[in-house]
Every structure is written in structure tokens, then in C-alpha cells.
Amino acid sequence: MLMYSILSTFLLLNSFLFMTLTHPLSMGMSLMIQSILICLLSGTLFLNYWFSYTLFLIFLGGLLVLFIYISSLASNEMFNISPWMWIGGAAISMTLPCIYLYLENPSSNLMSHDWVCLINYKMFLVKIYNPLLFQMSLFLISYLLLCLLVVVNITKFDSSPLRLQK
Asked: Where do transmembrane segments lie in this chain (predicted)?
């Protein structure tokens, strides 16, 4: 449970950090970190990492397409990081695990009844398609379909979003 709360906190912090970034490559790096954290979180929830691995490969493919697109548009921009960003990131990274270790109370049960039933459910590879996770599976499927449509729209040849290589 501690791993779940730490990963969800890092996801939240990375989401707030993404809103402050201005350079396209730093936004891409933030998206990559976000996708790694989402895959780790889904792996810890499912107790099985094969779905997380597949999801990460799909995210990575989309990020590579975005990286090609961004690097062709913003190839000469300088990448500057403020020293305060480094100090703030290091401070947050060091204090969050300490706070969670200090505040962890074994008597408090943060897991809902549905997740306890899910862990006790004796299905191994079909766990993502059971009735308790139907809505999450449907959301992930529709999200991946939307990402596929966006990537296909961006990379149309007739609208030529990328610079032509001569």
C-alpha cells in the first residue's frame, strides 16, 4: 500500500510539473516519466506486470512519434533548467518517502472492499477483464484508441506536419 501511495503522489507531482514546463523536449520527458509511473502503478495494482509492459510499449511508441514531430519543429531551441527546479525536485524526492514512512499507520486500512475482493479473486491472467475492473479496462481501451487516432491525424502525409527531409 505504501508503494501505491508513493507512486500516486509522484504521478500528481509530475502532473503539476508538466503544467510549468515550457520546452517541448522537457514536456516529452515528463510524459515519459508519467507513462512509466502509470505502468508501475497498474503493475502494482494488478499484481501482474504483463499488462503494464504492453501499455508501456504502446505509450513509448506514441512518445517516439511525438519526439520526431517535436524535434523537427523545435530543433534549435535552447533547453534551460532553473537551479531552483533542481533544488525543489531534489527536496521533494527526498522528503516524500520520509513523510510516508513517518505517517504510515498499520491500523488504518486505506484499501476499499472492492480491491480486497479483487486481490482474493483467483484469476491470474484474466484479472483485468473481471467485473470489478470493467470500467477501468474500458477507459484504457478508449484512451488508447483516442491516442491512436491523434497520432494517425498528426502523421497524415497530405497535411505534412513534419519538415520534409531534403
From this structure: 51-72, 84-103, 132-154
CA 6, 12, 14, 20 torsion: positive or negative?
negative
Structural domain range at position 22:
2-154
Q: What is the mean predicted confidence (pLDDT) over 42-56?
A: 82
CATH for 44: 1.20.120
| Contact criterion met (CB below 8 Å) for 127 and 44 | no
Contact indicator for 14, 37 with CB cutoff of 8 Å: yes
Looking at the 3D structure of the chain, how many domains does it have? 1
pLDDT at residue number 108: 47
DSSP track, 60-88? HHHHHHHHHHHHHHSSS------HHHHHH
Contact 30, 18 (CB under 8 A): yes
The rounded mean pLDDT for the chain is 74
Distance CA 41, CA 4 (A): 6
- DSSP letter for 165, please: P
Alpha helices in the chain (DSSP H): 2-20, 24-46, 50-73, 83-103, 113-120, 134-154
Contacts of 48 (CB under 8 A, 6+ apart): 124, 125, 127
Q: Is the pLDDT of residue 101 over 50?
A: yes
